[in-house]
Amino acid sequence: MRKILVTGGAGFIGSAVVRHIIENTQDEVINLDKLTYAGNLESLTCVAESARYHFVKLDICDRAGLDEVFAQYKPDAVMHLAAESHVDRSITGPAEFINTNIVGTYTLLEAARHYWNGLEDGAKAAFRFHHISTDEVYGDLHGTDDLFTETTPYAPSSPYSASKASSDHLVRAWQRTYGLPTLITNCSNNYGPYHFPEKLIPLVILNALEGKPLPIYGKGDQIRDWLYVEDHARALYEVVTRGEVGETYNIGGHNEKQNIEVVKTICTILDELAPSAHSPYASLITHVADRPGHDVRYAIDAAKIERELGWSPEETFESGIRKTVQWYLANQEWVNNVKSGEYQNWITKQYTAS
């Protein structure tokens, strides 16, 4: 049984990781989260009463607080997911992304290194620091056949992806310079239950149900590789428990779709499952001005993690997107509770039709 410190465990991917560990392993989880607008403990009610689950409200930039957490809980591994992650927000307010994603990662690395240096030899050898990153650090792909591999050069396009690229470099440097046993994963676009409704898929589902415009950047021809979040959580656990120190693993869903195709698929499922006066929901599609520096195509080569760790996604896009729509239809209480005033103001300000 391991003790795993998960930073950002109340976020979308982080909460999926926490639920996976508590529900499918015997490991103990310490969930460390600042609870920003996107952190939601309601996403963890199904595991909150477990004796193997602990929650600590803390900013990863708080070094003294981190030292206390390491000293109290004595984790065997860190899974670092805490991050500002929305590209649009990074464009209008990059400072938070620099602070959390770069300074916060540095602070966490130093706290982990201090703790790791004090461990006995066996525990020191077994310790892992797993940094969870994004495929956006690679920039974009203009060809139709190219794929991101673990050795693709970094070429970030947004303040968000630049901050994540910076944090990746810090993690590699701490492994190379200090010997801290680190691993890095870079994933494609995640989707699934408990996703904060500023991202494309939940935004489209909820706007459609309310008869609001479905905002699509530009022509909607940007291509993304879509990964069901529970598949991602399984992959991350495989990496932190079985991955090789110093290695990077790309995690993708093998589901390349244009944004407009994703939106039309959601509309078709909603027409079937929740017909209303707003049907056909595709009539709500509204094209808005494209965002600055918008990457054209992302696509992951996940052969390494499949070959070395035996992981592959269980969900196709068709099965995963149907499950996602069904979850939002069945969990309106969660949806209503997450719609804060800040969320409404952000959506109104950000997505104005061109």
Summary of the model, kept short:
The chain has helices spanning 12-24, 63-73, 87-92, 94-117, 121-126, 159-178, 200-209, 229-242, 259-273, 303-309, 317-330, 332-338, 341-350, and strands at residues 3-7, 28-33, 53-57, 77-80, 128-134, 182-187, 189-191, 214-217, 223-228, 248-251, 256-258, 285-288. It is an alpha/beta fold and 354 residues long. The protein has a domain at 3-196 and 226-256 and 296-317: Rossmann fold (3-Layer(aba) Sandwich).
Provide key terms for this protein:
alpha/beta; 354 residues; single chain
Structure description:
This protein is of the alpha/beta class and 354 residues long. It has a domain at 3-196 and 226-256 and 296-317: NAD(P)-binding Rossmann-like Domain (Rossmann fold), CATH 3.40.50.720. 44% of the residues lie in helices and 16% in strands. The chain has helices spanning 12-24, 63-73, 87-92, 94-117, 121-126, 159-178, 200-209, 229-242, 259-273, 303-309, 317-330, 332-338, 341-350; strands at residues 3-7, 28-33, 53-57, 77-80, 128-134, 182-187, 189-191, 214-217, 223-228, 248-251, 256-258, 285-288. It has a seven-stranded parallel β-sheet with strand order 3-2-1-4-5-6-10, with helices on both faces. The chain has a three-stranded mixed β-sheet with strand order 7-9-11. It has a two-stranded parallel sheet with strand order 8-12. Strand 1 (3-7), helix 1 and strand 2 form a beta-alpha-beta unit. The longest helix has 24 residues, at 94-117. The chain is globular.
